[in-house]
Write a structure and sequence with these properties.
Layout (H helix, E strand, L loop, with lengths): L7 E7 L3 H9 L1 H7 L13 E2 L6 E7 L5 E12 L3 E6 L11 E10 L2 E9 L6 H20 L1
Antiparallel strand pairs: 1-7, 2-3, 3-4, 4-5, 5-6, 6-7
Helix pairs in contact: 1-2
Length: about 150
Amino acid sequence: MPDAATEIAVSRTFPAPRDMVFQAWTDPEQIHAWWGPEHFTVPRDSVDVDLRPGGRYDLTMVDPQGNRHPVRQEVLEVDPPSLLVLRHEPMPAHGLNDPIDTRVEFHDDQGGTRVDITSGPYSAEMGPHAGAGWEQQFDKLERLLSA
């Protein structure tokens, strides 16, 4: 079990085939429709995905007040449609002084797809916010995949 002070773990089963769920994670057209917490948007032109080790997974979230939050990540591993591993650049302004690694695993699960995320390290203060953000993103992804 991950240490809540440094790493978060979130899982959700989506009512869609694994290929479709993996594509929602890697297709810029779909990423912009679901990435970010509730009430955040991602302009389509801000999404840049180069899906290979050493490639990029970059986007900009815009909060309800119009503040822009760049998400700059390196692709560490990719094994379609099973695995995506990203490393987020440090964000000292948000108390995140170290890179954050996010491992996204896609598993067949009774006709749907279970997505397991482990992500960290986070400070004890930021971990719960990150976990809540992933849960909200999963809600948005579920709506997209159900449409």
